[in-house]
Amino acid sequence: MAPRFQPTRVAWPLGPEQLEAIDQMFQELYDDIGNDSIFPTTTEGDIMYRDDTRVARLGIGDANTVLRTDGVVPEWDKVGLTADVTGTLPVANGGTGLASYTIGDLLYASAAAVLSKLADVSVGSYLRSGGVGAAPVWSTLKVPNAAAIGEVPYGSAADVLSMLAVGTDGDVLTTHGAGNPPTWETAASSTNMATVMTRVVLGI
């Protein structure tokens, strides 16, 4: 757009020519605004802002965008959850209320509308219920992560379950007294064979 009319610099006292020039300038400015001569493509929702040394127009943005700045000029854009927000989103707004986590942490409801973290523990522990209205807990009983067909679980230490591999066909499970793990043995070598045969003969 060509430069508009500018009056001679105002000097005091104002003379008739200066007053007429100022009046003409305001009239042209008023006419420009009325007939969209300044921003001929202005649409509903556009805004004006200062761009370097001039007044610029920012067109209306897409639906559900917000007015933000890139540090130089304003722009319409979506809210970025990485750089455009601060603080921790509370539970009431769909968040957790927690700002950090450690590997293995589990989230659970510790009270109405309150989320807490249950820290991880040693290998083999399992999660068990603390009862209705109570928090879950890690049990001190440690169980193996897997079991093969035919294996038998047994207590190998305090609060520790291990798996006894399956024996040979015909073997019998034999105990060796308190504090010792059971083993599979052939029927002929079993220390309990005499008792077993007595029961078989007597039918007891």
Describe the structure.
By secondary structure, this protein is α+β, with helices and mostly antiparallel strands. The chain has three domains: 16-77, no CATH class; 91-142, no CATH class; 152-202, no CATH class. The protein has helices spanning 16-34, 193-202; strands at 47-51, 54-58, 66-69, 74-77, 106-111, 114-118, 125-128, 137-142, 152-157, 160-164, 172-174, 183-185. The strands form six sheets. The chain has a two-stranded antiparallel ribbon with strand order 1-2. It has a two-stranded antiparallel sheet with strand order 3-4. A hairpin with a 2-residue loop joins strand 5 and strand 6 (114-118). The relative contact order is 0.05. The mean pLDDT is 81.
What distinguishing features does this structure have?
204 residues, 2 helices
Gyration radius from CA atoms, angstroms: 42 Å
- Average pLDDT score: 81
Low-pLDDT ranges: none
Share of helix, binned? 10-25%
Summarize the structure.
This protein has helices spanning 16-34, 193-202, and strands at residues 47-51, 54-58, 66-69, 74-77, 106-111, 114-118, 125-128, 137-142, 152-157, 160-164, 172-174, 183-185. The protein has 204 residues and is of the alpha+beta class. The mean pLDDT is 81.
